[in-house]
Design a protein that fits this description.
about 350 residues, alpha/beta, four-stranded mixed β-sheet
């Protein structure tokens, strides 16, 4: 077991000016350093729940009464017929890691319009595992919780202990509301706007439901290394605990048949292992950062994940008949790397993922 450590937080600023800063953290530009010992999770009964009644219009009208009946509730949760697991409080020790201070594609930009399906998340994981991109990788579920909640405060919502409808307005550029951030870690919006693709780490898997072993909506047995969606969204009527980083969802087995815009609510969350070369301006990392920014440019030019994934993987990650018309790549040319066929997909699940 690692020795206990106090939470650590530091911000890596974008641009060459930070290359030689004496206190620059060992993280890629735009990432914060988080880690330490604390508690993560959401206590039972934290939400004021309202069941969805089939055929009912505007069930949110019952929220004020539900909130009045549960003083101190985090938020109103209009529950669907199926409910995803909520992670209960547990002590954790998290090794220092770097995480985006603003979710991909970054501050001042909109979230991608297509988001990511299970297939897309698999392609992004493979792209990052290939290296050469500044050590970037998908975050783990425990890392998402630590970044969004803070290891000291363990907030139920990224910005505080109760839902504030005036914060985190939807359909705004990322970071448009500076109050939609964790004051301890400096991380913005996680769980309060969109949910995020992460990797199931062993510590999370052991506590992922009240009675392990756990199965999510996709009905797969949850195992370390699986790709899951972490955190809720800004919607109150949902199967995931709304606004909270302490909930998760499983979309089932990856298949290219999922290449559509149904993943728009599920965005990537990028982390990296600390590397002292970031603080010293290592040429190797400068080159890798340039490679990452070149891929990110595909998203900035099109507003979508698919062109970026296709450019990085070197083939069309979504078959044209399933992905629809390809948006133009940066520079106005067609998405060039996507002319080859994708590799054979993994075996498909015997049942489709449950709708969210």
């Amino acid at each position: 077991m690692r020795p206990a450590r106090a939470p650590v937080v530091a911000l890596a600023l974008a641009g060459p000016a930070c290359d030689s800063a004496p206190d620059a953290p060992p993280c890629p530009p735009g990432m914060v350093l988080v880690g330490g010992t604390g508690t993560l999770g959401l206590a039972p009964g934290a939400h004021a729940t309202v069941p969805t009644i089939p055929g009912e219009d505007a069930p949110e009208r019952r929220c004020p009464a539900a909130l009045a009946a549960r003083p101190g509730a985090v938020a109103c949760w209009i529950q669907t017929d199926l409910v995803d697991p909520v992670l209960r409080p547990r002590p954790v020790t998290v090794a220092p890691f770097c995480v985006e201070s603003h979710p991909y594609p970054g501050a001042g930009h909109p979230y991608t319009t297509d988001g990511m399906t299970t297939w897309d998340a698999t392609q992004l994981q493979a792209l990052l595992a290939g290296g050469g991109l500044g050590g970037r990788r998908l975050c783990t579920m425990t890392e998402l919780q630590a970044a969004a909640a803070g290891l000291d405060a363990n907030l139920p919502i990224v910005y505080g202990r109760a839902h504030d409808p005036a914060r985190c307005p939807p359909d705004q550029p990322i970071g448009a509301d500076p109050r939609c951030a964790n004051p301890e870690t400096g991380v913005h919006e996680l769980g309060a706007v969109h949910s995020h693709w992460v990797v199931a780490d062993a510590e999370f898997v052991a506590h992922a439901c009240d009675q392990p072993p756990c199965r999510g909506a996709g009905r797969r047995l949850l195992q370390p290394g699986a790709l899951v969606v972490g955190g809720g969204t800004g919607r109150l009527q949902t199967r995931q605990a709304p606004l909270s980083p302490h909930t998760w969802h499983d979309h089932g087995t990856p298949s290219p048949a999922g290449c559509d815009d149904m993943g728009h609510d599920d965005q990537p969350l990028i982390c990296a292992d600390p590397d002292p070369g970031w603080a010293t301006g290592a040429p190797r990392l400068a080159a890798e950062e340039a490679a990452w920014q070149a891929l990110r440019a595909h998203t900035l030019a099109t507003g979508r994940m698919t062109p970026m994934l296709s450019a990085g993987r070197g083939f069309a990650v979504c078959p044209p008949e399933l992905a629809g018309p390809a948006p133009p790549a940066p520079g106005g040319s067609p998405s060039g790397p996507g002319s080859a066929s994708p590799p054979a997909p993994p075996p498909q699940s015997p049942r489709p993922p449950a709708p969210r």
